[in-house]
Amino acid sequence: MKHSIAAAAIVSTLFCIAATSPVAAQTPTSKATAPGPAPRMPDGHPDLSGVWWRGGDIGGRGFQLTPRGPQAERPVTFSDLYQPWALAHAKTLADKDDPTVHCIPTAFGTLNVSLFDVGGVGQIIQTPKFVVMLTETFHGFQIIPFDGRPHRDDQPPSYRGDAIGRWEGDTFVVDKTNFSDANWISAEGRVSFHSDALHIIERYTRVDAKTLEVEATVEDPKVLTKPWVVPKQTLTLAPFDQILQLACVDSSPQSIDAAASQKSVDAIAPQKSDTKPR
């Protein structure tokens, strides 16, 4: 599988962290302690800083994309809302067309959390002027100012978009525009191409010291019939205080590599000319 190396690395990384962390290794106590209130910055806003994931049991709910059980309903996905032409185009694409094969990040996130990208853990660092979101996979980051500045108009489209933030009470709202259309919404073969009209609004609420709720609405009028309201995600403060680098290895098909190699050989080989020397 094209993502076997990346997926194995993700699981291995998280397993090693969970296994070596003294917090993760603690045995359950007889009396659960309720988490304290969300910490706050000197300006009074909640502090979103921390390493966030879905839980410490590797292979458990942190990596579950759909509900389990006979009564569980599959949540609506981005591609479920494709316009007819987009649905027809999606049927022409396959696993091999997934841009993450070439280490290109997603525009949103495979687990419906943009902080994760294609991984299962991410880190937030908050300052008086910025919220910085660090992604374990592809060593990605996004710096989100919340000082009232508008979107930049001097930058080309990017994989993760241009982000600005604002506070609505205790909720941090992130507005993302100016996306490139060269990546997908998610990865792992889930066909989810989008257009350059992609617009994402995210809402981050730190409920208490150990819980972060994330809501998002994804708009793309060029390919969707209506906005995609992403199911609310509940993240947990991880028992470690920093993420580690998870390198990506470009798993290009051999035919592409061979074609690229042949092109390089042709470029340096002596060229025949019909022109007589002067």
- Residue-averaged pLDDT, rounded? 82
The SSE string, one letter per element, is HEHEEEEEEEEH
Q: How many domains make up the 3D coordinates?
A: 1
Number of E strands: 9
Q: List unreliable stretches of 5+ residues.
A: 1-30, 263-278
Our measurement of the CA-to-CA distance between the termini, rounded to an integer number of angstroms, reads 57 Å
What does the main sheet amount to? 9 strands, antiparallel
Strands side by side in the biggest sheet: 4-3-2-1-9-8-7-6-5
- Secondary structure category: alpha+beta
> What's the helix count?
3
User: What proportion of the residues form beta strands (DSSP E)?
Assistant: 15-25%
What is the share of helical residues? 10-25%
Principal-axes shape call: globular
Radius of gyration: 22 Å
Can you describe what's shown?
It is a single chain. This protein has 278 residues and is of the alpha+beta class. It has one domain. Helices cover 14% and strands 23% of the residues. The protein has helices at 4-20, 84-90, 254-268; strands at 50-53, 121-126, 130-135, 140-145, 162-168, 171-177, 199-208, 211-219, 228-237. Strands 4-3-2-1-9-8-7-6-5 form a nine-stranded antiparallel beta sheet, with no helix packed on it. A hairpin with a 4-residue loop joins strand 3 and strand 4. Residues 1-30 and 263-278 have low confidence and may be disordered.
Distinctive features:
globular; alpha+beta
Outline of the structure:
It is built from three helices and nine strands. It is an alpha+beta fold and 278 residues long.
